[in-house]
Design goal:
With 279 residues, this protein is of the alpha/beta class. Helix content is 28%, strand content 34%. The radius of gyration is 19 Å and the shape is globular.
Length: 279
Amino acid sequence: MSNTIYIGYQFKVEPLQPGTEILIAELGYAGFESFVETEEGVTAYIQKDEWNANILDDIYILSSDEFKISYSFEEIEQVNWNEEWEKNFNPIVVDGICSVRAPFHEKPKTEYDIVIEPKMSFGTGHHETTHMMIQHILKNEFTGKSVLDMGCGTGVLAILAEMKGAKTVDAIDYDNWCYLNSLENVERNNCAHITVLEGDASLLTNQKYDTIIANINRNILLNDMASYVKCLNPKGTLFVSGFYNDDIPAIEEECNKYGLTCVESLERNNWVALKFVNL
């Protein structure tokens, strides 16, 4: 991996949000595998072997009148991923109970201490949605539960679910980088009940879960809701995030269609995380 040549794109995005989030999502589908958010936008990386001169032609947001986006790119050899994220990754503590840190950070005095090397995966706990999902997990009972973490990123939510007593946890992500990173972090935190899988909702066939965690984005949630509900046990709980306050009506309508009721909402900088129950 150390000799892999990458193409690095530096994007300046206005307005920063939700522009950066939308751009990262689109670039991910186009084959970009790693992202570092900056004060002006995002730096995105793709392996040179996967790159072509027309790679951005189908990125819709670049032609949208709602956003002003400029970029430059260069060839980069031997990217030091650890150096990239260490520059931007500080330890966090959620509600004084749960810490998320890197191995080189000093161990804090918290009840739950999660050690991750996120590299370029989503889920360091800094993003509002991950932070709120951690809050939901901390406030709810997981002892003896079967859990699904859909779109697991670094695996941080799956890891916390096991620390909270979950009996079994399936952690799924379609992104190979996230899949490999979750495997590393699960091992790093000595988790024995987490199965990491690479794929999407098509993997959900005959499984049943007491609790489903889905921190993805609005469109995927709406598209895959039927698959989630089919896997949810009676009186089960669904936690969803990855969308804005304005998206709540659409998410609620879809969940209500399958008999789910919203019982709690958390909000942080216009991002929301909802708790639904299957009564």
